[in-house]
Structures are given as C-alpha cells and as structure tokens.
C-alpha cells in the first residue's frame, strides 16, 4: 500500500511538468534531467542521420550499462541469499508449523524470535537493503527525463 501511495504521489507531482512551452524550461527537473537527455538525443541523432529511434536505443543502452554493476550486485546477493535460505528451509518450515499450530501470542512471538535467530545465524537477510532499490530510484527520473525530451522533439 505504501509503494502504491508513493507511486501516485510521484506521478501527481510530475503531472504538473509541461515543457511544451519555452517559458516552462527553467525548473530544476528540466535543467538536470530533460535538457541533458534532449541534448544527448540530438547529439546521437545528428551522428546517425537524424535517426531518433537508434538514438533512443543507444541512450537506453548507455543508461543500462551504467547501472549494470549495481543490478548484477543485487542479483548476486539475492541468489546467495536464496541459496542460504534453501539450505535451512527444513528448520524454518518446522518453526513455521509450530507458529501456525500455536494458540497463544507469547508462543508465536517466541517462535518468531527463534526463526529470526536461525536466519541471522546463517546470514540470511530477510529485508532488502537500500542498495537493492537504488538503481531503480536513480533510473526513474532519468527515464522520465527521456520521456519529456521525446515530447519536446515532437
């Protein structure tokens, strides 16, 4: 629910961005994201015989190559985390059965503490870190800047 609310807040804030008129080309978002994307698209399109399709593909590939190390690191961490979890899955499933069958809240809390202790002991991270969403958070304004730059080109 929190993610959906954050998404709609972000969309609502950016819905006021109208760069179709020259008088609106003075905001921070325009200066840091839209104008550089527009210049980059024009640079690549002029060197590709005014082919904006190839220019868009090249810009997207460059963005992906820049963020590739971060994404590979996240995949690696999630893969090893999954392997560690699979190795202790029998213990965790037994504790989960105890949690499901227990009647008192105190027992449930104790079993959950035991489960967390086993996960921590084996190095399994249950929550995603900030580094796992960092590439996505950085790419969102860049892609939105690319979108507005494409609207300017029309």
Tags for this entry?
154 residues, mainly alpha
Quick overview:
This protein is an all-alpha fold. The chain contains six helices and no strands.
Give a verbal description of the structure:
The protein is mainly α. 80% of the residues lie in helices and 0% in strands. It contains 6 helices and no strands. It has helices spanning 2-14, 28-47, 52-87, 89-101, 105-121, 130-153. Helix 2 packs across helix 3 (52-87), helix 2 (28-47) crosses helix 6 and helix 4 runs antiparallel to helix 5. The longest helix is centred in the middle third of the chain and has 36 residues, at 52-87. The chain is elongated, with a radius of gyration of 24 Å. The two termini are 36 Å apart. The model has no long low-confidence stretch (mean pLDDT 81).
Sheet/helix structural class: mainly alpha
Please give the count of helices.
6
Low-pLDDT runs = none
Q: Which overall shape is indicated by the principal axes computed on the Cα atoms?
A: elongated
Order of helices and strands: HHHHHH
Average predicted local confidence, pLDDT: 81
* Radius of gyration over all CA atoms, rounded: 24 Å
Strand runs, count: 0
Beta-strand percentage? Answer: under 5%
End-to-end span in angstroms?
A: 36 Å
Strand count, sense and barrel status of the largest sheet are: none
Helix content: over 70%
